[in-house]
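Here is my example:
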Amino acid sequence: MAPLRVLCIHGYRQNATSFREKTGALRKLLKKHVELVYVSAPLSVQQANTEEVADKQNDSAPESGGEEDPRGWWFSDIKARSFNAQQQCEESLGLDESVTAVREAVKDQGPFDGILGFSQGAAFVAMLCSLQEQKLEPVFGFRFAIIVAGFHSACTQHQKFYNSPIQVPSLHVFGLEDRVIPDKMSRELLPSFQDPQVLIHPGGHFVPAASAHRQTYQDFLKRFQ
């Protein structure tokens, strides 16, 4: 059986290189079943601001040089060009560019069986699935989504993505000790999906890949092989 090809969407202040390093344990866990392909967001993020919620914290891997080029999928504060998952905003900046970047990645590196996102990237994956469902992005053909530390965007402009439950089969992964995206925020995204599957782990803000989680990932992925 050929491995499932999955497009990976990193978190805020990460990029394709750093997210690849941070998900090494997941690649190892699923190596026979899945090929993970990484794409960087088009928006460059300024130096860290104490106000911002960043996705740098990762309990399972050390920080590395990949963070030298921090990237984001949209900014919730248009003037400051910054992002905070809990910031209420009327409109965001950069989302259209990011959708274009994913469309180009699918054209150039696809097709993909599924899509995986982490934190801001996970919230973005929900939006991409909504666009696919509304037939607004014909090149997308994701058969499943894995949403790690996802959340329902607090931006008014994004509410159109949540109008009806997304039919794309989804696995939602979140940690009870996550201080960046508290599990309450991840749970609030669940009603936006039809029959979401859930993997809850005891840890913080990272992509869990312990042997205890293998079965849940594999059982979910088995449906698409």
